[in-house]
Amino acid sequence: MHTIRLRVNDKVYKHLIKILSKFSKEDIQVIAEDDTFISIQKYLEKELAQVEDGSAEYIDIDELNNHLDDTIRKNEA
After folding, report:
1. What is the rounded average pLDDT of the residues 40-59?
2. What does the domain layout of the chain look like in residue ranges?
3. pLDDT, tens digit, for every residue of 60-74?
């Protein structure tokens, strides 16, 4: 699968989306680059940079299990 990024004029946008919506979601998926998308993308880029430069902090499986157990307990109440 390929990803294409387009900048589309407001006049054309609705027409383009209408054409793209005729395809199945398995063939074409429209990914809206809204504020949420952009903030998640920036977060993931920062996390990747930390992994690549060696400054990322990791936890072991026991710490993860303890954290998950605590989170579940807090949300069960």
Report:
1. 96
2. 10-76
3. 999 999 999 999 999
Q: Can you spell out the DSSP letters for 10-31?
A: HHHHHHHHHHHTTS-TTT----
Calculated CA dihedral for residues 35, 38, 39, 45, nearest 10 degrees: 180
How many C-beta atoms surround the C-beta of residue 16 within 10 A?
13
Per the listing, tokens 């400054």 go with: 55
pLDDT in tens, 8-18: 999 999 999 99
Token pair, residue 62, equals: 């026991």
Would you give the distance in Å from CA 62 to the centre of its chain?
Answer: 27
Task: Please check whether residue 47 is in contact with residue 56, taking contact to mean a CB–CB distance below 8 angstroms.
Answer: yes
Calculate ∠ Cα 38-42-45, nearest 5°: 135
Contacts for 73 with CB less than 8 Å, ≥ 6 apart: none
pTM: 0.54
DSSP secondary structure code for residue 25 in this structure? T
